[in-house]
Amino acid sequence: MKIFAKYHLPPILYALLIITASSISGLKSPFLGEYQLDKIIHFLEYSIFALLIFRSISHLANKALSERALLISFLLVGLFALGDEYYQKFVPNRVSELPDLIADLLGAIMVLFLLWIRDRKETKK
Fold first, then answer.
1. Phi then psi for 35, rounded to 5 degrees?
2. Which of 52, 36, 42, 49 is nearest to 104 (CA)?
3. pTM, two decimal places
4. What is the DSSP string of 102-113?
5. C-alpha 88: how far from its chain's center?
6. Helix, strand, coil share (%) of the chain residues, nearest 5
7. How many alpha carbons fall within 13 Å on the CB side of residue 53?
8. Which residues, at least 6 apart from 53, have a Cβ–Cβ distance to it below 8 Å?
9. Range with the lowest mean pLDDT among 6-10, 21-25, 121-125?
10. DSSP category for residue 8
11. Which helix (H) or strand (E) element contains residue 35?
12. CA distances from 99 to 38, 43, 95, 106 (A)
């Protein structure tokens, strides 16, 4: 139970947080001066999500899955991002935008790429 609470519960709760935020009708992203922070928020949101998913998959008892944690993490986060953007089409006063999906995926790719570099360095030692 401690392993579940430490490694697997955080991405589940974070996914619920994303869905909750996506369900808020007419939610506007903050501005910094004249710049809307929407894409940066998407990027950071899915960077964190990718890290949590990777951490969870890396700590599964199934060795075959944990060895492919980077790929599986990207697929899960990508499918979730796609589903989230699709879901927003049905929320009043919300829109589904391809640039949002791209920002989501780029955030996930960045974190997973950094984790891949870290793993390669650890393997060479």
1. -100, 130
2. 42
3. 0.90
4. HHHHHHHHHHHH
5. 16
6. 75, 5, 20
7. 25
8. 11, 73, 76, 77
9. 121-125
10. I
11. strand 35-36
12. 10, 11, 11, 10
CB count within 10 Å of CB 5 equals 9
Of 41, 53, 42, the closest CA to residue 115 belongs to 53
Task: List CB contacts of 58: < 8 A, sequence separation 6 or more.
Answer: 7, 66, 69
> pLDDT of 39-83, one tens digit each?
999 999 999 999 999 999 998 878 777 789 999 999 999 999 999
Token pair of 86, please?
């699709």
Which residue type sits at 96? S
Q: Which of 22-31, 33-42, 77-86, 91-100 has the highest mean pLDDT?
A: 77-86
> What average pLDDT does the structure give for the chain?
91
Provide the token pair at 46.
Answer: 């899915």
Name the residue among 115, 112, 117 with its Cα closest to residue 77: 112
- The C-alpha atoms of residue 21 and residue 99 are separated, in whole angstroms, by 18
Q: How many residues does the chain have?
A: 125
